[in-house]
Predict the structure of ferredoxin--NADP(+) reductase.
Amino acid sequence: MPHVITQACCGDASCVYACPVNCIHPTPDEPDFGIAEMLYIDPATCVDCGACVSACPVGAITPGHRLSETAARFADVNAGHYPDSAPGDARFPVRQEWRLPMAPISKPKRLRGAAPDELRIAIVGSGPSAMYAADELLKHTQVTVTVFERLSEPFGLARFGVAPDHESTRTVTNLFDEIARDPNLEIRLNTEVGRDISLDELRRTHHAVLWAGGAPTDRPLQLPGVDLDGVQSATSVVGWYNGHPDFRYSAPDLDTERAVVIGNGNVALDVARIFTADPDRLAPTTIDRTALAALRGSAIREVVVVARRGPEHAAFTLPELIGLADGPARVWVDPAELVDVDASDVADTTIAAKIALLAEISQRPKPDEPFIRLSFGYTPQEICGDARATGVRFVRTGTDEELVIPAGLVLSAIGYRGRPVPGLPFDEATGTVANVAGRIVDGAEPLAGLYVTGWIKRGPSGFIGTNKTDSGETVRKLLADAEAGALPRPGGAPVAV
Ligand SMILES: Cc1cc2nc3c(=O)[nH]c(=O)nc-3n(C[C@H](O)[C@H](O)[C@H](O)COP(=O)(O)OP(=O)(O)OC[C@H]3O[C@@H](n4cnc5c(N)ncnc54)[C@H](O)[C@@H]3O)c2cc1C
Ligand code: SF4
Ligand code: SF4
């Protein structure tokens, strides 16, 4: 039976290069890679060799016959990506260079041209984009990397964002630990660039600085009533249950029967799942212990995740919806909110699969409390209440029909945005450091020795593994500049912090 990719897939594409028969798509050089919600194995051409399993950093691939009940649906999801495939499919020719070895073993490389004998790189941030960049850089024998991280623990949102019940996804930090063991890599924790050390100092003491500081700010919810007690961002709740030091004092008030989450991306689902989970199931995870104690005393019976548009525009991904529908979470959709959509009218297979699964959920009996309700087609107008939130007033999108959902806790989950970085040019329109393929630019002019990667380079989209391809692009530019002699020469030894 062919192998199957499941929910934890974070898109780093290691499996693509491990597969000897080119049956995992989209590959990073195919156009839909950037928008894919996961990668898929073609069951007609998979030869069941298992090479991809060990290449996957998050344990997302499993032989079809070992699929758990909760992941069974992923066999169809993988096959659905290749509706007409058959062995020897001409669209996906077996590439000779991928045949052997099964998993590429990269040999240390030496930079050529005008590259210096020792190439000193500073990376700001230690999230996924930083660690993938460091990995790529350290394949070259002349390179030494120093990573500067403001927090006392490394790995950014892989540690402080990913939900604690996504244990498989969190194992990606084992890969980052492995990268961090490289003797040419040093990580300096508790060191904020711009506070404990300046960007100028880094530039003076390194050939290049690679900014990988992420895009940590919420898009602000602009509604009357957002300043009431009981209204906060989903980000602050994520930080709270993951023990992020910035959100130690962001405990949500759980002494209410209903919470409303505005926005329906994967982060909204994460928060809804954690709020409605059995605390005993969360106890063995890395969830913050204070948060766990608070969740044990929670009065929440229902979390309503509300989207402005219909299910055909749902922001959550199909793998996350499957995880919600078939896992331990209790979830429900009002069938009345799905009457206007029909999966068979939708050409996009992923969107059609989401609609079909939502329709299936809507036919289930309403679950026991506490449960999650996914709601579609309501535009928020105001948060009601005097000092505290008491509910949210919506209108049915495109109509005047009003609806008030009573709730003592209101969370905004409408996306992220990068903050300007002092000393670096910023593109206000995209909320990113201005760059061309990772080279930081001022207008059209590249700034020698300055590079950017990750969410602050391309905006807050994509999965953990998406940063691997992104960082690969930036590192290629940096190394090309090194070989062309285009990097400034550092003036002195690295400063002590
Ligand atoms: C709540 C949430 C849940 C997610 N869950 C998943 C998931 O389940 N699966 C998945 O594939 N993807 C998930 N993602 C997406 C994934 O986390 C991101 O794609 C990825 O973390 C982006 O990497 P990054 O390196 O650009 O930024 P980050 O991970 O944000 O890392 C940036 C790092 O830079 C540090 N930093 C910032 N400024 C400075 C400074 N001045 N000096 C020193 N250090 C600094 C920060 O402290 C941080 O450690 C999630 C995202 C969020 C927000
Ligand atoms: S089991 Fe082998 S053939 Fe099948 S997807 Fe994995 S690497 Fe490719
Ligand atoms: S996480 Fe990476 S290696 Fe694992 S299945 Fe997804 S793309 Fe393949």
User: Anything to note?
Assistant: Residues 19 and 49 are 8 Å apart (CA to CA). The pocket of iron/sulfur cluster (ligand 3) is lined by residues 5, 9-15, 39, 55-56, 58, 60-61, 465 (CB under 6 Å). Residues 94-103 have pLDDT under 50 and may be disordered.
